[in-house]
């Protein structure tokens, strides 16, 4: 026994072991837990598992809901009565579906079970059940029997969703996979929605989530005369006449830059554009989610007409000439994303910044990236009066607005919104049993807030800047920045 086996003996032993394994697999299939599972596969495909091949396609994890919609559409056309089934047993979540079936065939404690389901978001307040791990018997367009399988993201695997087609014929499997992919795009649940990369309380996840679409009328956006109309012409006007523009050989892709001090209404203006473009897909990027600009651009191209909103773009697009700015890889990703979408794509890039002077010249000055730049300034006297009336709509506003307008010179829209909130809170505290009434004490609240102008609270709320001679005197204009007036710059591309 201590001597080495000869070549012939080793071959004979290997052959015996192989036959033993084959016999074991057969016994498992015929009498073990895997028997019903193997019989289901063999019975539909008409061949042994050893002849079955898999054609799989990976999708981003947030596409799981769309993969399910595509699979459901395919089954509705080819196997409307088909039912999903799954694989029972522990530790079955770490292999592809074919690998799991092969493991079951070779003695792993897997058997026929129910499909696993997960709940995913399909809208701001809507969820759907999707197959997390399951198979369904169907046919290829030419009638060849196949299995359609879906495996969602696993705890230890890559954050992807996988579509698998099992068949004895590769061409049939590829045809089914291609048709399901087409249906995934045809029935895309993201189209026309407002999406954001990042966590959200609106039934979101850690990557892509749905946001409610704002509902705003034009009178809720207080900007200097002509500014909102110019923005609408550039963004909405092109969307409304896209077919005629393309027929005339004109490009549709456009870029809008909204700049101005914090709290003046840049984001509010963007929300108005979302409200106007009811059928447009909107993708919002802000903060840490800016790293996903490439994925956002890909979605925008696929789901056009679409709008990509990049808030606080200076976080990634600071001019490389500014001391300490360095090189930001996300800047190049942003530039590539804006350039990579074809000129005939109905896609709008809307960028916002509080620091227009620090923006990278390659972004701000390159035709085809930003072709309209609009300053959203601190409101003038007429704007402040309109803002006070706007934010006071829900209360009995009896104040003489003249002193309030004078006392709020140089502040932002956010400041005035907080002013009304504080005044209403004071009224509720004073008379908790009656509807709030805001009278001439509103001017006193404005003066009290003016006393906070040197504090952090005043700065964060957009209080006026610079030396003052009155309660809230006009801010000092910085060189090259217009204060109190809307400025617009145009480029032709």
Automatic annotation (TrEMBL):
Domain of life: Bacteria
Gene3D superfamilies: P-loop containing nucleotide triphosphate hydrolases
Pfam families per the UniProt record, alphabetical: AAA
Entry keywords, A to Z: ATP-binding, Nucleotide-binding
InterPro entries the record matches: 26S_Proteasome_ATPase, AAA+_ATPase, ATPase_AAA_core, P-loop_NTPase
Keyword Nucleotide-binding: yes
AAA+ ATPase domain sequence ranges: 252-380
CDD domains referenced in this protein's UniProt entry, alphabetically: RecA-like_protease (cd19481)
Family in the record: Belongs to the AAA ATPase family.
Protein name, UniProt field: AAA+ ATPase domain-containing protein
Species of origin: Saccharothrix longispora
């Amino acid at each position: 026994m201590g001597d080495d086996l000869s070549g012939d003996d080793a071959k004979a032993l290997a052959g015996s072991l192989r036959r033993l394994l084959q016999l074991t697999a057969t016994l498992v299939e015929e009498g073990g837990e895997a028997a019903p599972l193997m019989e289901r596969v063999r019975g539909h495909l008409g061949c042994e598992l050893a002849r079955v091949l898999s054609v799989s396609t990976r999708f981003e994890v947030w596409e799981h809901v769309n993969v399910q919609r595509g699979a459901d559409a395919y089954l509705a056309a080819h196997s409307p009565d088909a039912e999903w089934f799954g694989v029972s047993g522990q530790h079955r979540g770490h292999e592809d579906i074919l690998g799991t079936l092969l493991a079951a065939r070779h003695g792993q404690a897997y058997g026929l079970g129910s499909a696993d389901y997960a709940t995913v978001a399909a809208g701001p307040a809507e969820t759907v059940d999707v197959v997390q791990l399951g198979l369904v018997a169907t046919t290829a367009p030419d009638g060849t029997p196949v299995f359609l399988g879906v495996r969602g993201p696993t705890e230890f695997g890559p954050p992807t969703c996988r579509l698998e087609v099992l068949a004895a014929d590769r061409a049939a499997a590829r045809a089914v996979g291609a048709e399901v992919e087409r249906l995934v795009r045809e029935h895309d649940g993201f189209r026309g929605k407002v999406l954001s990369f990042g966590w959200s309380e609106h039934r979101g996840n850690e990557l892509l989530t749905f946001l409610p679409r704002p509902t705003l009328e034009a009178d809720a956006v207080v900007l200097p005369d002509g500014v909102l109309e110019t923005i609408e012409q550039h963004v909405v006007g092109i969307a409304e006449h896209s077919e005629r523009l393309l027929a005339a050989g004109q490009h549709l892709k456009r870029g809008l830059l909204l700049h101005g001090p914090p709290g003046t209404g840049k984001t509010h203006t963007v929300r108005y554009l979302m409200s106007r473009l009811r059928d447009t897909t909107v993708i919002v990027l802000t903060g840490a989610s800016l790293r996903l600009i490439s994925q956002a651009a890909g979605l925008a191209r696929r789901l056009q007409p679409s709008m990509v909103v990049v808030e606080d773009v200076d976080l990634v697009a600071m001019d490389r000439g500014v001391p300490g700015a360095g090189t930001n890889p996300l800047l190049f990703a942003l530039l590539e994303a804006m350039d990579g979408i074809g000129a005939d794509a109905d896609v709008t890039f809307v960028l916002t910044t509080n620091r227009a002077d620090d923006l990278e010249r390659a972004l701000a000055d390159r035709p085809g990236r930003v072709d309209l730049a609009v300053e959203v300034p601190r409101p003038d006297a007429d704007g402040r009066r309109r803002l006070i009336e706007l934010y006071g709509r829900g209360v009995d506003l009896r104040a003489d607005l003249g002193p309030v307008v004078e006392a709020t010179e140089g502040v932002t829209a956010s400041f005035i919104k907080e002013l009304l909130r504080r005044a209403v809170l004071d009224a509720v505290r004073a008379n908790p049993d009656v509807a709030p009434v805001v009278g001439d004490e509103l001017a006193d609240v404005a003066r009290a807030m003016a006393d906070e102008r040197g504090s952090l609270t005043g700065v964060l709320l957009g209080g006026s800047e610079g030396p003052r001679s009155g309660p809230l005197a006009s801010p000092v204009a910085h060189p090259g920045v217009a204060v109190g007036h809307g400025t617009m710059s145009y480029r032709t591309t």
